Amino acid sequence: MQTAPVSALAARIRSAEGDAFLTALYGEDELELQRQRYLCALAAFEARFGQREVIVLSVPGRTEICGSHTDHQQGRVLAGSITLDTLCVASPRDDLQVNLVSEGHRDTVLELEDLTPEESEQGRASALVRGVAAGIASSGIPLWGFDAYTTSRIPSGGGFSSSAAFEVLLGALFCALGDDMLSVPELARIAQQAENVWYGKPCGLMDQYACALGGVAGLDFRNLLRPEVEMIDFEFEEHGYALCAVELGASHSDLTADFAAIPAEMGMVAQRFGLRVLRFVEQEEFEEKLPLLERELPARAILRARHFFDENERVLRMAEALRQGVMDACRREMLASGESSRRLLQNIVPDSKPDELALVRALERSAELLGERGAWRVHGGGFGGSMQALLPLDMLEDYRREMDALFGSGAVKQLRIRPRGPVIF
Questions:
Q1: Kind and range of the H or E run holding 119
Q2: Which of 85, 178, 215, 414 has a CA 20 to 30 Å removed from the CA of 26?
Q3: The domain containing residue 54 runs over which residues?
């Protein structure tokens, strides 16, 4: 692992080399903002840990373009890495202690001698550190402790996979400390297992894959050991459109039960066919047995299964529309995905918070503002964190002004595709 003093990395960030690195990762219009962000992160590390030999690591968040709640059923997903990222300044230690300072969060301190899951630790950052460390150790890479400072532009609980980006960052950091690297599938599986087992939250593989890959990717999880990955060279702005997310000020981080009910109910349907997930259920057989299933299973489980079958095919059409650059087709498929989420998947209003209607309000207002020129849908896992909109660039400022007036300044974020996954500067 190549490290450098904090002062030397700060000088590099201010140089032409730093300009080229930041521009390639974030775009020219964010150059100065990112330069100051990196310098502030280095200064924050030095203030806490002193002048040390460090590395700087960045991992992107992700946006789900199509494929809502299909990955946990080994389905298809269309996802993109975005320029909203988590940034880490870290220095290796000569023991197994981890000291992690995360901006806006409580410090995390733990020893890596014991890597077994602890129920009392579920839902905390330390659980993810321990879980990722366990996966790294089982892969044969030597573990090292570290001191680190992290800062993130990925909104927590907003559907941009802040947790997956943190998990992938930990995996990439442990790899760098051990002078080794894992493939994207290995890194994603370790990150997912940490979230499922150590953190206690069920999830599929899409979030971790998208954060680890970079760019726009069509993902097929039929074979979990060897998922099919198709990279699609696509930039929305080049086709005259903006892909946006609207933050609604309602975190979904405390809605684990609502999220867990979706794979559980889809799994109930799959089990009636002797299978674990819906991907291996033939849709024709599902339709044939529908009268029997409707007598035996909750109505919502049936509706959510219908969403899976429709959405799994919709991903293929959306990917083809991106490859061909046919934006009207992209718009139609996004609208269809959003409507399916509302009617069938039912991940708009959480059962645990029936009065949480910000997402309903945002979707309705988007329909009024964008009409036949745009598209709108729930973003990510759903239940109120954020929504997604696709609109012509000439409508962006008016849309931003109207939605910011409803949900607060800066609520509308234009999502730009980031070409790379984890990167060390």
A1: none
A2: 178
A3: 4-58+84-200
